[in-house]
Amino acid sequence: MKIGWIILVVFFCCCASPADPPAVSFYYWKTTVQLGDREESTLQLNSSSRLYVRYFDVGLQNGQPFPISAVLFKTIPKQHIIPVVYIKNEVVLSKSIDIPALAQRIVAYLEQINAHYGIETEELQLDCDWSLGSKANFFELLHALRQQRPWRLSCTIRLHQVKYFEKTGIPDVDYGVLMYYNMGTISANQTNSIYDRQTAATYIKRLGKYPLKLKVALPIFSWGIHLRQGKVINLLNKLQEADVYNHSDLKQSENGKFKILREGVYFGQLFAADDEIKLENVSAETLLEMATDLGQHLREKPDEIIFYDLDSTNVNHYEKEIFQKTARLFR
What we know:
Mean pLDDT is 93; it is low at 1-14. The protein has helices at residues 2-16, 37-45, 89-93, 99-117, 135-148, 159-163, 165-168, 197-204, 241-244, 284-297, 312-315, 322-328, and strands at residues 23-28, 32-33, 50-61, 64-68, 72-73, 80-87, 123-127, 152-157, 175-179, 214-219, 223-228, 231-237, 250-252, 258-260, 264-266, 269-271, 276-280, 304-308. 34% of the residues are buried. The protein is of the alpha/beta class. Keywords: Signal. This is Lipoprotein. Residues 1-19 form the signal peptide.
């Protein structure tokens, strides 16, 4: 009998594998889902079994909530799909919103999309940067969605919602996804608005006290900021260093920005002479740094790291092993 128990203990200890790194997953944030070869190979290389797909946004039209930019599936991913619905803060700030009716419409529209494409989902994630003024409505919406279906429910968590959680509250969800990016104001200064370690340090010390189970979302996107006389004009999404270096009409300044030498259309936008482009991205070294810092402050190791977002332009910027390397730092 004692030998039998010893065998069982050894068996369960071997299966538990506490040192296993978190799973690697991705957000897919295009309106049309059509995975290319690079995106498919990235999912396969990282053994990704889940894909977080933006289904639609909810905004206000004539004071009423309305779905915006519904997803179109050209191909159906092999991974388990987790629908993500982005709720604009204006919706949950509204004093006249019928929350139960909104929850019913969200579910009905989601199920309509699933039925059209033959997709089955058992989980829903809401993305909303709720504030003190919209907290009550957002939390009521989460409760109403739970009443609609017995599904797994999650939501995104911003850093300020962690730091001030006594005031911003804890959402009633199965888990949250900590969005560890978009930490600053998009501006002409030298700070990287996607990720700044000094800014992050003012928030992450509170992670050890945050009571909700968390997964972590890390950025792999980039953009260029179009500047004119020190003022932000527009964003150039997915702009990479390779796009601007050695460009005949751009010259890199001492401050690291790229000056437009002559008026023209570049990267789909009209630039005047002397306009500037400020590049913002997250290097592979920075991803590893982020993971190390988070691993030291999270209350418990996350079981999943979700990279934002799966796109050939983004993943081509990194070595193929970077996502696994990053996840392993959370052991």
